[in-house]
Amino acid sequence: MRWRGMDGHCDILIIGGGMAGLSAATALATAGQRIIVLDKGRGPGGRMAARRAEIGGEQVGFDHGAQYFTARDPAFREAVAAWEAAGVAAPWPAAGKDAWVGTPGMNACVKAMAEALDVRWGVRAERVERNGAIWRIATGDQSFTAVTVLVAVPAEQAAVLLAEPAPELAALAASVTSAPCWAVMAGFNAGLPIAADTYRSETGPVSWAARNSAKPGRSGVETWVIHASPARSRELIDLPKEDVAQILLADFFAVTGAAPAAPQHCDAHRWLYALPQALSGDGARFDAGLRIGIAGDYLHSPRVEGAWLSGRALAQAMLQERVASTS
Ligand SMILES: Cc1cc2nc3c(=O)[nH]c(=O)nc-3n(C[C@H](O)[C@H](O)[C@H](O)COP(=O)(O)OP(=O)(O)OC[C@H]3O[C@@H](n4cnc5c(N)ncnc54)[C@H](O)[C@@H]3O)c2cc1C
Asked: Whose C-alpha lies nearest to ligand 1, atom 5?
């Protein structure tokens, strides 16, 4: 269901095409609503992004954000079953009994959702303003107008975007603090002598490491993704990524006990707002008077499933209000 309306104007504009934004968009499109989604990223994923690198002449992918997801809610389980049937998700028992990954990369589920929608990648919403009964969204070189705006970006970014047009929603988002996470992506020309494909710790400098190349749908050279703990990430927060990569690689060999090996490829990425301390509540907020709402993992739980449920809750709140106002 792809809608190409008059460029720049739509009934509902969603800022943020991560799991929460696209979950809202999918639910609204299924209910017959016309939507445009803007996302500043060059491609799909948000915090479920995947990155490509060439190692020894081979193209390999790294899931440098979310590592896997669980599916406990019945509605989310249905969505995951549909992704599995479409070949964009698969179970990954190495991470747990109910652990799933996107295939061939973590962003595959978001990508599949986006293909059925009108998503404009590489478009950053810079300002949201009320102009009479219409919202105006400025994006650098163009602007959009919409009757309803839904904001599905990390809490700290939502707080900035909404400070003037929707101060109450902005204050709610501003009350959230997210932990940062440095992620290292390393490729090796031989398998590392580490038996398990995953490592996790609540206390050490490395909170998580995974043999990325062992996830379903991946192949090729041995690759690992290493996540620093929130405390270690804060300690290293302003260092250059090249230095962080070396420090965390050393941490990784120390905590796993494996003999240090020189990587063929090593890069690092800093997630400033990786994992929010989620607020309790209904999972989303919609201001029917102003026709503006917010969704995101911070309104439900700091997980892929939480983001999906939050987006769906926002769509439901909006649709229920529409029914109430017309009856
Ligand atoms: C390192 C790391 C590890 C994680 N591990 C796990 C895990 O193992 N399991 C799990 O379930 N969850 C994990 N998570 C959490 C999970 O990734 C998130 O809960 C979920 O992806 C959040 O989805 P979202 O849509 O709320 O936000 P996001 O994915 O952040 O999406 C927001 C989108 O908004 C866009 N955006 C932001 N500002 C603007 C703007 N001004 N204009 C336009 N677009 C904008 C961004 O580009 C982004 O695509 C992890 C996250 C990180 C970072």
From this structure: 66
